[in-house]
Write a structure and sequence with these properties.
- It is a single chain.
- This protein is α+β, with helices and mostly antiparallel strands.
- Among the domains are: 61 residues, Ribosomal Protein L9, domain 1 (3-Layer(aba) Sandwich); 76 residues, Roll (Ribosomal Protein L9, domain 2), CATH 3.10.430.
- A four-stranded mixed β-sheet has the order 4-7-6-5. Strands 2-1-3 form a three-stranded antiparallel β-sheet, with no helix packed on it.
- Strand 5 and strand 6 form a beta hairpin.
- The longest helix has 33 residues.
C-alpha cells in the first residue's frame, strides 16, 4: 500500500515522501492519526504541484540568503572595550553586540542565527551568520582594548615615608619599695625628765 506522509515518521520517512507500508499499518495507524494519506493518482498530482511551488519558493529564499551573505562577507566590525590591567575586557562581545552593530549598518539580523562564542580578550575574530541551512556568511570583527590606569590623586603630592625609628625595648617598670618613714624619737615627758633632779636635792 502506497502512502504519502504528511509529517516525519521515525523509521519510515519524511514529510511528502511516498512510502510502501502494510495495509493494516496504513489504514489502522497512519491514516487515522493524520500522518499520511493514500497515494492515489490525484493525490500524487496534488503533491507534485505543491512540491513544485515549494521548490520555487525555497529557491527564492536561498537566492535571497546568498545575496545577503555576499554583502555580509564584505562587512568588517570593530569593537573598542575597556579592560583590566590583566587584559581581560569588562563584559564581553557576543551575538548581541554583533547584531546591534549590523543593525546600525542596515542589516536586520536575528542574534539567534549568529554563531559565536563570547569574546573576552583583544584580537581578530569571525562571526558566522547562518542565513539558510545551505548558506552562511562570515563577518570578521576586531576587538581592541583600552587598559585601565591605576587611579592616583592629582592634587595630593606623594608623602615621603620617614624611616621608622628602632623601638626601644620596653623594660618593665619596677615598683619602688615603699620607704619606711622615720619615726621621731620618743619624747620623754617633761615630768619624768625632771624627776632625777628632785631626787638629788633630797639626798643632800
Amino acid at each position: 500500500m502506497e502512502i504519502i506522509l504528511k509529517e516525519d515518521v521515525i523509521g519510515l520517512g519524511y514529510k511528502n515522501d511516498i512510502v510502501n507500508v502494510k495495509a493494516g499499518y496504513g489504514r489502522n495507524y497512519l491514516i487515522p492519526t493524520g500522518k499520511g494519506v493514500i497515494a492515489s493518482e490525484s493525490a500524487k498530482k496534488v503533491l507534485a504541484e505543491e512540491l513544485k511551488q515549494k521548490a520555487v519558493k525555497l529557491a527564492k529564499i536561498k537566492a535571497e540568503a546568498e545575496a545577503l551573505a555576499e554583502k555580509l562577507n564584505a562587512v568588517s566590525l570593530t569593537f573598542n572595550a575597556k579592560a583590566s590591567s590583566t587584559g581581560v575586557i569588562y563584559g564581553s562581545v557576543g551575538s548581541l553586540q554583533i547584531a546591534e552593530e549590523l543593525q546600525k549598518l542596515g542589516y536586520d539580523i536575528d542574534r539567534k542565527i549568529i554563531a559565536i562564542k563570547d569574546v573576552k580578550a583583544a584580537g581578530e575574530y569571525v562571526a558566522v551568520v547562518k542565513l539558510h541551512k545551505e548558506v552562511a556568511a562570515q563577518v570578521p570583527f576586531t576587538v581592541t582594548v583600552e587598559m585601565d590606569k591605576p587611579e592616583t590623586p592629582a592634587e595630593e603630592a606623594p608623602v615621603e615615608k620617614k624611616p621608622r625609628k628602632a623601638r626601644k625595648e620596653e623594660t618593665p617598670e619596677v615598683e619602688e619599695a615603699p620607704v619606711a618613714e622615720e619615726t621621731p624619737a620618743e619624747e620623754v615627758p617633761a615630768e619624768e625628765a625632771e624627776a632625777p633632779a628632785e631626787e638629788e636635792k633630797t639626798e643632800e
